[in-house]
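In this supplementary section we document a worked example of the pipeline. Step one takes a protein sequence of length 190 as its only input; no multiple sequence alignment statistics are reported here. Step two produces a three-dimensional model, which step three serialises into structure tokens for compact storage. The input and output of this example are shown verbatim.
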Amino acid sequence: VITYDKIGFNSFVTAKASYAYRMRVFRDARLALGLDAGIVQLSVDGAKLQQALGTVDNGIPSGSAIAPDFGFGAYFNTSDFYLGFSVQHLFAPKLGLSSPDGSSYAFTIGQHYYIMGGYNYALNRNLTLKPAVFIKSDFVSTQFDANITLLFNNLIWGGGSYRLDDAFIAMVGMNITSDLKIGYSYDITT
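The serialised model returned by step three reads:
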């Protein structure tokens, strides 16, 4: 997977390959372990930044740096329950740039942790209640999402979510096939 993100005078590129090993633990319980490996690249166009500011500052870094990057994840599921954990930037890659005046700058990409879990509770033959949680953190800031959806005839679903200190979310959707779903959500910021 290759991603490219450009913000102002900075660009960030990642190129990674992923592998997952899946195994049956017991009856309908499965465990998957995954690893991704690749590179990250940070580029800063200091000359364009100086031009935009209308100044000359030889302390502004410029150039490009590349570092190896890794991620890990684990996912456990049964027919009614799932729990997952992953970490991106496992070894917190460091990228170094220098400026025309010889100053050195080190940029560290912090680790990002993700935890998710959910349960499918059959209310009756036609209705399934699906509560779930999703936690994202870099240990500087943490986001917590609590979701609940109601699935009708394993075809149409609707529900809501709350992202702590951010938004209420309304969701509706339809299962086109067992592998393809289409949905719509609308965030109402708080």
